[in-house]
Amino acid sequence: VRSAPVPSQKPIIVAIDAGHGGEDPGARGRNGVIEKEVCLRIARKLARMVNETPGYKAILTRNGDYYVGLRQRTAIARKAQADLFVSIHANSLPVAKNVRGSAVYVLSQRGATSEHAKMLASLENAADLVGGVEIAGKDDDLASVLLDISQTAVREASFDFGSRLLESIGQFNPLQKAEVQQAGFAVLKAPDIPSVLVETAFLSHPEDERLLAASDYQDSMAASLLAGIKGYFSGYRP
Questions:
Q1: N or C: which end of the chain has fewer CB atoms below 10 A?
Q2: 121: which residues sit within 8 A by CB, 6+ positions away?
Q3: Is the dihedral of CA 166, 169, 172, 177 positive or negative?
Q4: Mind listing the pLDDT tens digit for each residue in 5-22?
Q5: In degrees to the nearest 10, what's the CA dihedral of 39, 200, 19, 215?
């Protein structure tokens, strides 16, 4: 049984990533709803709710209509010493317009393995700290072990967080998949921050597109994400 977090001076920091932006609009629905705009609205609503929760602080990887590189999004979260990373997106599958609902993704093992190799190949440019442990200057074998320990713990925590999000979202919205999915999304590759990507709904589904454009639906989605975040930290220390 995990113990509840011990109160501390440092707030729990949640990095909220609004997908796409600027010259990268993301998906577009038949009625003109654009992914980058919906993602930013939900991200801002979630950030406000997080900041209104005692002991929590939100940071946004972007807070306007401009492009931020995928690696830069992760770097922003790590620089802020984020305890959690949530990337918000809206899916699209025009060839199957009947597909709808929410899904949650974590980094696949294959993606983690490739990232592990990439970091080891460029230790000079790698982050000094991974999971609170300095890796720059360590020999390759030790650095590899430290990275492996950190990545394993983070993937387990990400799965736990993703499961809590699905349970929370599923109380108000259909789920495309009832279990956490895995993919090699670059934005999920922080080696020391539990990270998930949420596909809120399908812009290619007419009803989902209508809902995504509605402010009350955006509020409900943000509230469900907050519930998952708070549920996660009821079991994990930040």
A1: N
A2: none
A3: negative
A4: 555 578 999 999 999 999
A5: 0
